[in-house]
Design a protein that fits this description.
By secondary structure, this protein is of the alpha/beta class. It contains nine helices and 13 strands. A hairpin with a 2-residue loop joins β7 and β8.
């Protein structure tokens, strides 16, 4: 039995799926990255191995996300691709008529526009984490509630408070002020959810022609308060898949299957000594920050040289 592993390594969370030849998800897992992608992926793979069928042979590995190159080297991945491509492939597998993908993750967000199954435009947030999952989590902590309670409280409110959420610092200041003058907690939370949507549309989605069918992805897609205001403001019914948080991993797993040469991959990585070492090169005016990648003490790759200088 053949399986194909897809891993999406983000700054906040690490997601993994193993699919079969029909692109069906056999096993999946979602864990926190905790600032250490190598450790997170090692943990993730051990969990997936414990869940997967005993007779399964991994015939392809794909990596995507912010640490895709690093983890691709660790696992000898046959495919390493950016998140835009991975999310689009995963989404189109389940919803082939999709025209717009809205994605909000832990620290970034993106929009992908599709025509006839082809990506025609995209954008990502570049300046601030306002409106992302980490932003909502920090505000939940400030209000003394669990972020899981956001949905119920937001949906009960009929009077969302206006929150200035274009900047994390301003949003926190505004939130504190609204709480101090006596606004109901539910109305503040509803206002936060609405401000996340407005921030996204005014920044990531600025100038984009958003058309249905629309699919909402990422961890924040599980927040029904945010979903409510997306549908209200866009005037469209929005699809949230049960595996919306795994679409990047699904997409890169599908790409690994498409590019597989049917070689079997080992998932026994716990004994691999994998390290990165950063140095500054003073060989020319570029003063490049060089990253050396070591696997069992062997230098396997070097990143960061702008002038073409080689390193040993």
């Amino acid at each position: 039995m053949s399986g194909y592993l897809g891993i999406d390594i983000g700054s906040i969370s690490t997601k993994g799926v193993i699919i079969d030849d029909n692109n069906d998800i056999l096993v999946s897992e979602y864990i926190w990255t905790e600032g250490n992608p190598i450790s997170a992926v090692t943990k993730l793979i051990n969990i997936l191995k414990s869940k997967m069928p005993k007779n399964l042979k991994i015939k392809g590995i794909g990596t995507t996300g912010s640490a895709r190159k690093l983890i691709g080297l660790l696992l000898n991945a046959n495919v390493v691709k950016n998140e835009i491509t991975a999310h689009a492939i995963g989404t189109l597998e389940k919803y082939p008529n999709t025209k717009t993908i809205l994605e909000i993750g832990g620290q970034d967000s993106k929009i992908i526009l599709i025509e006839n199954g082809i990506i025609v435009d995209y954008a990502m947030n570049t300046l601030c984490a306002a409106g992302t999952g980490s932003f909502l989590s920090s505000q939940a902590k400030r209000l003394g509630i669990e972020v899981r309670e956001f949905s119920d409280l937001a949906l009960k409110s009929n009077n969302p408070v206006k929150i200035a959420a274009r900047c994390t610092v301003f949003a926190e200041s505004d939130l504190v002020h609204k709480a101090q003058v006596g606004y109901a907690k539910g109305d503040i939370i509803a206002g936060l959810c609405r401000s996340v949507v407005l921030n996204y549309l005014n920044n990531v989605g600025k100038g984009k022609k958003i058309k249905g069918p629309i699919v909402f992805q990422g961890g924040v897609s599980k927040n029904k308060g945010v979903l409510k205001y997306f549908e209200e403001i866009l005037g469209e019914k929005i699809i949230v898949d049960e595996n919306s948080h795994l679409m990047g991993a699904l997409g890169i797993a599908i790409l690994s299957k498409r590019n597989s040469n049917q070689t079997s991959y080992s998932l026994d990585i716990q004994n691999i000594d994998f390290k990165t070492k950063g140095i500054e090169c003073n060989g020319c005016a570029n003063n490049c920050e060089i990253l050396k990648i070591y696997k069992n003490s062997d230098l396997i790759d070097v990143w960061g040289s702008k002038c073409g200088k080689t390193f040993k």
